[in-house]
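Render this sequence as a predicted structure.
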Amino acid sequence: MAFRRGQRVEVFQRSSDESWKSFMDEYIGRHGIVVDPDTSVNDPEALVEVSLEGKGTHRLPQDCLRVLED
């Protein structure tokens, strides 16, 4: 699935990506908005920049994110 700028997402699970660090476990269950989906690359392995409510903006692996319906 391709993420789009402005989409509301949830960090719903721990990522299997090597970029996932243990401190990121506290992001699980947090909601945020996609800031930079990296659509120019269109690579499912690319990190997605997400602004998480109360936690700032972070680049996260795609396998830990799911789109929330409005």
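Summary. The first strand starts at residue 8 and ends at 11. The mean pLDDT is 88.
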